[in-house]
Design a protein that fits this description.
The protein has eight helices and 19 strands. The protein has 410 residues and is of the alpha+beta class.
Length: 410
């Protein structure tokens, strides 16, 4: 187990890190974390900054999970250092003492990949529980891990690694050279679950070492980097989370499967609501991709606010005859401060900025430009309109998708 920040993944523009729990978090009172980063200044920079002379940039002061991904990383040839601390009411500023922060588990900066290295990576493997195979150890389970074949002409086999999905576990090697494209890993016991990654093993590899993996996803030399990690397999949800998820629409909830604690933000960020509460008996869900820096978005948002408030008022007046809607803001802002100031003006729900769920939804929506307003079935998640911007914000028109056209009540 490690006592510091660990590298989970990196590509050519982003780094994903994790760290051990700080304090004594609970489901009812999770620790909020302040995460900061800075570029390494030179090849001899080992992250020692006890004097506080080096400037860190704050990524967030409100992280509720101990994993985060920093995107848009460019222009640092020597890598990046991260540090994290527990956020308190009196200490959430960038200027806290360096001694209040947890640094890297190993005093090496984390590196992004080159574009060429990124292009060489295999797709992430697929991992799932295999209930058809009995695990020899009591109270353990078996994971079936598979991956797409590599097209590398000098392919010899595949190297597979795994890590327990917690903030203190590093990657470890399962097999150095597998001949096939699937494996079953037995005797898994962690309730946090596990993730897997793979790379091709090529004839003539030289210069690589697993020691380099504390700071990179590449062993070095002429070795091809590891793939991104698989989805976590084997994680056991709390009974509260399970009941919360099962009471909502399964089809729609799949879009939010990586949402921390299964909760969305509400009331401009002042509170949060569970997914089951957010989508309870909702007929239509709108995903709104927008950003504060976008002038067309700022012009469109007031129109959408009026549509939302009118629809809510109509439903309150005649719930049995009116379509129930909900809007979820999926931010395309560049930083958390832009997200906060923009979302503060909105009356609907939002995906927290510092989550993979936001990036996953933007990708799933195929966002090419903003604003974008996607209309979904509130139960199945079926897409009715990929982008309603430019069309009339008319509840009666939208209601026809779900077989209701009685939304012209006044």
């Amino acid at each position: 187990m490690n006592k510091g920040i660990i590298l989970i993944d990196a590509d050519d523009t982003s780094i994903t890190v994790t760290w051990p729990d700080i304090g004594k978090p609970s489901s009812s009172n999770p620790t909020k974390y302040t995460l900061q980063y800075r570029p390494a200044t030179s090849a001899s920079d080992h992250g020692m900054d006890s004097g506080g002379q080096l400037a860190y940039q704050s990524l967030s002061t409100e992280l509720t999970t101990n994993t985060a991904r920093k995107r848009n990383l460019t222009g640092a040839g020597h890598g990046f250092f991260f540090r994290v601390s527990a956020t308190t009411k009196s200490q959430n500023r960038v200027d806290k003492s360096a001694m209040d922060y947890m640094g890297h588990a190993y005093r090496k900066p984390f590196s992004v990949l080159t574009m060429r290295e990124q292009s060489q990576r295999m797709p992430p493997p697929t991992a799932k529980i295999d209930s058809s195979v009995a695990s020899p150890q009591p109270k353990s389970y078996v994971a079936h891990v598979s991956w797409q074949p590599s097209a590398e002409p000098l392919l010899v086999g595949y190297k597979l690694q795994m890590r327990e999905s917690n903030g203190a576990s590093s990657w470890s090697t399962v097999a150095n050279c597998l001949s096939g494209t699937e494996v079953r890993k037995k005797n898994l016991t962690s309730s946090s679950g596990y993730m897997f990654r793979v790379r091709p093993v090529l004839q003539g590899e030289v210069g690589g070492s697993e020691e380099n993996l504390v700071a990179s996803v590449n062993e070095g030399g002429n070795v091809i980097p590891y793939s991104s990690a698989s989805d976590v397999v084997g994680a056991r949800s709390s009974s509260r989370s399970s009941s919360s998820s099962s009471s909502g629409s399964e089809g729609l909830l799949k879009l939010f499967k990586r949402l921390p604690d299964n909760k969305l933000l509400a009331k401009g960020g002042m509170k949060s609501v569970s997914l089951s509460e957010a989508f309870n008996k909702v007929d239509l869900v709108f995903l709104y991709a927008s950003a504060h820096w976008c002038a067309p978005c700022r012009r469109y948002t007031p129109q959408l606010i009026k549509f939302y408030n009118d629809a809510k008022a109509m439903y309150a007046k005649a719930p049995g005859r009116t379509t129930k809607i909900e809007i979820v803001f999926v931010s395309a802002d560049h930083d958390v401060n832009g997200f906060r100031s923009y979302y503060a003006s909105m009356p609907w729900l939002a995906v927290p900025f510092d989550t993979d769920t936001r990036e996953i939804l933007l990708s799933w929506m195929k966002v090419k430009g903003i604003p974008q307003l996607m209309c979904l079935d509130g139960r199945t998640g079926k897409i009715y309109e990929s982008n309603g911007v430019g069309r009339a914000l008319d509840l009666a028109r939208f209601s026809r998708y779900c077989g209701r056209d009685k939304s012209s009540i006044r």
